[in-house]
């Protein structure tokens, strides 16, 4: 039997306890694993490493291609980035698979509803690209970047994953009704790629209704593909249906490396108390074993967990409350004692290896035949009365041989005013200028120079037209 080399990151807070439990159980199956223990997170930040991920950890994952990771604490507010997000992005783990399955012996208001769904969350794009700027001292901006390539990868992962588990339906949850370009990109890609999978019933659902339906009738879902932020929220919500974050495992899937980790965080208030539920990381380990092709060991652990919860009724405090709770270590030892046992009545899924090849997805698969720039949005800091600013922008436009279309504040037209109501302003507005035909960069530079003479601008956006279709949205109130 060849040994697997795996990077193990104990993590912060409850991380060391839960990863220790997972490692002990995995080792007890008899599988040969060389664990390489690596650091990331709070201690690394404290040592002054701004990414929270030291080079040795990066080298280890690069070499081993597989990591089992405990949760990492994320500094809140300004400064360091989340080491979790850094790891996901560094290894381009573009997909985060989060199964949510009713657990035998764990009573919840949803028990016996046969919840068995999987959230396939895009993992590196969206608002989590972490591109944030203060546009003015009072207005913050976070860029939501969604690429066609990213959508193709996550949608294919969703369909291939659904197939590998013999699922029949797949949903795509987006907010495409409001964010037509960004969230809409995932919807369009999903609908296109769905044609290649006629064996799966594919449906789009608006994400807020998806949240509603998940609470109302979760058993209708099998696989839900979604964007990064939506997936983060939907997966926490879904985990609560089956007993909470203690039962929610996850796998970060990339072409070159996969990182397995629970959905939950470092839960600092429980750190070191030997009371936390280690199941989510153990189940992440089960996903890891299946990824390695170790299907028998994975099934052994899964059934040992079932027997521990449903037959022995050894359960942690998050399920049974403090009075009747088993400690983390007692739970772990009971699972080890139950290795090899099977729980009757559980239908095991037909797991198959994933069959994914992303190497042929081009950087730019959409190639417009015709394109031009028909205007420009200039983002401006302003505390002057809006009419004064609007008139100054009209003059700037005239000097650059352009036309001011309108001024908006947070996407709403505020100049020229069409009603008598005074708009509620912030200190950031956007002036939209149109050319008298396609614009070149020299005209854009000219308008920026003219605007800069009377106002402090912070950024610009070109208004593209691709194959006759505007590559920008109208403002609210724009004719
Ligand atoms: P959290 O650590 O997930 O904890 C939230 C709550 O979930 C806990 O208070 C507890 O609920 C429950 N919970 C979490 N893990 C559990 C487990 N194993 N068993 C039973 N219940 C569990 O979320 P947070 O408090 O928002 O975040 C804490 C830190 O973790 C932050 O720094 C955050 O950035 C980080 N984080 C890291 C990751 C990651 O590494 N992937 C993910 C999320 C958050 P009760 O209070 O009801 O008992």
Can you put this structure into words, describing what you see?
This protein is of the alpha/beta class. The chain folds into three domains: 1-96 and 241-344, 3-Layer(aba) Sandwich (Isopropylmalate Dehydrogenase), CATH 3.40.718; 116-237, Rossmann fold (3-Layer(aba) Sandwich); 371-470, 2-Layer Sandwich (Alpha-Beta Plaits), CATH 3.30.70. 34% of the residues lie in helices and 22% in strands. Helix 5 (148-164) crosses helix 6 (182-194) and helix 7 (207-216) runs parallel beside helix 8 (228-241). NADP nicotinamide-adenine-dinucleotide phosphate is lined by residues 14, 71-74, 84, 244-246, 261, 264-267, 276-277, 280, 318.
* Ligand kinds: NADP nicotinamide-adenine-dinucleotide phosphate
Number of helices: 14
**Category from helices, strands and their pairing:** alpha/beta
> How confident is the prediction overall: mean pLDDT?
94
Shape: elongated
Kindly give the count of domains. 3
Main sheet strand line-up: 2-1-3-12-11-4-5-10-8-9
CATH superfamily of the largest domain: Isopropylmalate Dehydrogenase
Secondary-structure arrangement, i.e. CATH architecture of the largest domain: 3-Layer(aba) Sandwich
- Outline the low-pLDDT stretches: none
The count of strands amounts to 18
Find the CATH topology of the largest domain: Isopropylmalate Dehydrogenase
Rg is 26 Å
What fraction of the residues are assigned to beta strands by DSSP?
15-25%
N- and C-termini, Cα separation? 70 Å
The major pleated sheet works out as: 10 strands, mixed
* Helical content class: 25-40%
CATH class of the largest domain: Alpha Beta
């Amino acid at each position: 039997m060849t040994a697997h080399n795996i990077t193990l990151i104990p993590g912060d807070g409850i991380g060391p306890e839960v990863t220790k439990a997972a490692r002990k159980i995995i080792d007890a199956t008899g599988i040969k694993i060389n664990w390489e223990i690596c650091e990331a997170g709070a201690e690394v930040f404290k040592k002054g490493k701004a990414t929270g991920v030291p080079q040795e950890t990066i080298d280890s994952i690069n070499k081993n291609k597989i990591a089992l990771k405990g949760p990492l604490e994320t500094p809140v507010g300004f400064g360091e980035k989340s080491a979790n997000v850094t790891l996901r992005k560094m290894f381009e783990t573009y997909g985060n698979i989060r199964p949510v399955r009713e657990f035998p012996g764990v009573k919840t208001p949803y028990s016996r509803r046969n919840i068995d769904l999987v959230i396939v969350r895009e993992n590196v794009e969206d608002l989590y690209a972490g591109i944030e700027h203060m546009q003015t001292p009072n207005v913050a901006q976070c860029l939501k970047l969604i690429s066609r390539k990213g959508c193709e990868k996550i949608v294919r992962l969703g369909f291939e994953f659904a197939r590998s588990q013999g699922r029949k339906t797949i949903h795509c949850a987006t907010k495409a009704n409001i964010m037509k370009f960004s969230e809409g990109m995932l919807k369009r890609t999903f609908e296109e790629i769905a044609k290649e999978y006629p064996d799966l019933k594919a449906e789009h659902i608006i994400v807020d209704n998806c949240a509603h339906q998940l609470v109302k009738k979760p058993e209708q879902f099998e696989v839900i593909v979604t964007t990064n932020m939506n997936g983060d929220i939907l997966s926490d919500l879904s985990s609560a249906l089956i007993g909470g974050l203690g039962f929610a495992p996850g796998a970060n899937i990339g072409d070159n490396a996969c990182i397995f980790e629970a959905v939950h965080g470092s839960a600092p208030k429980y750190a070191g108390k030997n009371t936390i539920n280690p199941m989510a990381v153990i189940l992440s380990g089960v996903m890891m074993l299946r990824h390695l092709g170790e299907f028998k060991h994975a099934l052994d652990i899964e059934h040992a967990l079932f027997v521990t919860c449903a037959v022995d009724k050894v359960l942690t405090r998050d399920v049974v409350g403090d009075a009747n709770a088993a400690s983390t270590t007692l739970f772990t030892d009971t699972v080890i004692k139950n290795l090899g046992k099977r729980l009757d009545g559980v239908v095991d899924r037909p797991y198959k290896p994933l069959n994914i090849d992303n190497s042929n997805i081009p950087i730019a698969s959409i190639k417009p035949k015709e394109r031009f720039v028909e205007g420009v949005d200039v983002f401006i800091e302003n505390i002057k009365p809006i009419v004064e600013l609007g008139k100054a922008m009209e003059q700037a436009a005239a000097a650059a041989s352009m036309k001011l279309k309108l001024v908006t504040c947070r996407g709403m037209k505020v100049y020229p005013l069409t009603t008598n109501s005074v708009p509620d302003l912030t200190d950031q507005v956007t002036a939209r200028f149109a050319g008298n035909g396609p614009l070149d960069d020299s005209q854009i530079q000219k308008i920026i120079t003219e605007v800069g003479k009377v106002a402090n601008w912070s950024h610009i956006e070109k208004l593209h037209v691709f194959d006759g279709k505007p590559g920008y949205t109208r403002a609210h109130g724009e004719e």
